[in-house]
Design goal:
mainly alpha; single chain; 148 residues; elongated
Length: 148
């Protein structure tokens, strides 16, 4: 197994973030249109007040989508869109698929890697391409073999 480089992992994460940002925009638009059809506010101030009340719901929806996206596409050997584009995937240190629980914990541990100042992600430069969330969950990111 050849480990993926830090740069390849970074670009895969950027692709995933862009994809999830687009999903968040679509969810927000759908929520806004549904809210406009349901409430029919009489003024912009009324609409703004209602949307600010709805913001936590949108945040929780996005958190659920993000957890589902990274967990389900990592658990059984599949790849996120970013990892698929760049030809990498997540495996355990023994080379097996991570499974649902380990993939979920790895996704939760992204938060630990991001704080403070993304130091957990920068650890990949010291620990042969493994970030804090990889070390905590016993995973690593490897290149996918070309099967022709």
């Amino acid at each position: 197994m050849t480990r993926a480089s830090v740069l390849v992992r970074f670009f895969a994460l950027i692709v995933d973030i862009v994809f999830l940002f687009i999903v968040q925009i679509l969810i927000s638009i759908a929520a806004l249109l549904g809210h406009l059809l349901w409430v029919r506010p009489s003024s912009f101030g009324q609409l703004s007040a209602k949307l600010s009340e709805f913001s936590p719901v949108l945040s929780l929806a996005f958190l659920f989508v993000m957890l589902y996206y990274f967990t389900s596409l990592t658990a059984h050997g599949e790849q996120t869109i970013g990892k698929s584009v760049l030809g990498i995937r997540v495996v355990t240190t023994k080379g097996d698929n991570p499974g649902m629980i380990r993939a979920f914990l790895r996704c939760i541990c992204y938060g630990f890697s991001a704080l403070p100042f993304f130091l957990g992600f920068l650890m990949a430069f010291v620990f042969r391409g493994r970030t804090l969330h990889d070390l905590l969950c016993g995973t690593m990111v490897v290149k996918v073999k070309d099967e022709c």
